[in-house]
């Protein structure tokens, strides 16, 4: 079995030791990127064993994306900036699982939260949950914080960074380091001042400062702790996927990418609920 997170191990075995696949019963993959790579291999007809996509399992989506981010967004912001949330105007880009977690936590502490979305269903959900749906360009001049959670790239552009007000905090909770165009800030007219670990002031010629956290990488992974309970749930789900692939009778799984069977997902959920009894 291959237990992977990001697809690097799978890639390494493909490149260096392809013959190993003769004895491999399956791959279990945890991350968005790794799953994407597996689907590409499958599409190209190059996947030589069954693979299980744990990233899209309900326990991962809820525990890692929604509930973990709901807790760690506040921890990451507090540890880096000591900011007070009450009354602050915040824009959260993306109202998927991560965005929902961030918005809930910020609202609970009294921040005034608005949301940007490109998907009408998620935009409607934001609206019905009491968040104003806006375009980033409409609010970028007035907000105190901009948080990206989209999984997309260039969600915050240099032009928008130019228009932010002095002291605006900018950070990313979504995909690795693509969401904020940080590269565009590394130009001679802007000065970077490292004020503490993972916190940079980017200073414009007129003295305006934007507070950039973790250089646009994931705020919670760089600057906060992640509850071990969440990691435990994810690891358990992976173990269930390994067991399912290993014990499956020949022919149940072909050389393709599968989601964790609902029965296994439910086992993981009931197991989790037992922790709270
Ligand atoms: P998701 O697909 O549920 O939500 C993403 C949302 O962003 C979607 O609703 C989509 O319509 C919206 N979106 C996409 N492009 C946009 C844009 N340009 N402007 C506004 N909205 C836009 O995904 P998710 O589960 O919320 O995960 C989001 C990202 O966070 C992924 O890259 C995921 O890998 C990452 N993630 C981070 C952590 C963490 O610990 N920080 C944990 C889990 C997942």
Automatic annotation (TrEMBL):
InterPro entries: Adenosylhomocyst_ase-like_sf, Adenosylhomocysteinase-like, Ado_hCys_hydrolase_NAD-bd, NAD(P)-bd_dom_sf, S-Ado-L-homoCys_hydrolase_CS. Its cofactor is NAD(+). GO terms for cellular component: cytosol. Keywords: NAD, One-carbon metabolism. Residues 65-226 form the S-adenosyl-L-homocysteine hydrolase NAD binding domain. It comes from the Eukaryota. Gene3D superfamilies: Adenosylhomocysteinase-like, NAD(P)-binding Rossmann-like Domain. It holds the Pfam family AdoHcyase. GO terms for biological process: one-carbon metabolic process; S-adenosylmethionine cycle. Transmembrane segments: none annotated. Belongs to the adenosylhomocysteinase family. This is S-adenosyl-L-homocysteine hydrolase NAD binding domain-containing protein. It comes from Electrophorus electricus (Electric eel).
């Amino acid at each position: 079995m291959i237990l992977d997170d990001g697809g690097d191990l799978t890639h390494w075995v493909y490149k260096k030791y392809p013959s190993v696949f003769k004895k491999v019963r399956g791959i279990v993959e945890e991350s968005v990127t790794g799953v994407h790579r597996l689907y590409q291999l499958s599409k190209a007809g190059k996947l030589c064993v069954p693979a299980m996509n744990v990233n899209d399992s309900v326990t991962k989506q809820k525990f890692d994306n929604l509930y973990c981010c709901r807790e760690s967004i506040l921890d990451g912001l507090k540890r880096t900036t000591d900011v007070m949330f009450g009354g602050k105007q915040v824009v959260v880009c993306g109202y998927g699982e991560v965005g929902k977690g961030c918005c809930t936590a910020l609202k609970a502490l009294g921040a005034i939260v608005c949301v940007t979305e490109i998907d009408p269903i998620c935009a409607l959900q934001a609206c019905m949950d009491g968040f104003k749906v806006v375009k980033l360009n409409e609010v970028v001049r007035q907000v105190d914080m901009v948080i990206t959670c989209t999984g997309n790239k260039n969600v915050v552009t240099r032009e928008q960074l130019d228009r932010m007000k002095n002291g605006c905090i900018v950070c990313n909770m979504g995909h690795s380091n693509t969401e904020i165009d940080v590269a565009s800030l590394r130009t001679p007219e802007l000065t970077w001042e490292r004020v503490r670990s993972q916190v940079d002031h980017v200073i414009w010629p007129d003295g305006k400062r934007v507070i950039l956290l973790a250089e646009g990488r994931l705020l919670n992974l760089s600057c906060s702790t992640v509850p071990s309970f969440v990691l435990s749930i994810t690891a358990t789900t992976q173990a269930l996927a390994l067991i399912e692939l290993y014990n499956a009778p020949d022919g149940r799984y072909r050389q393709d990418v599968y989601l964790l069977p609902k029965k296994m997902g439910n086992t993981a959920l009931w197991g989790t609920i037992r922790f709270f009894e």
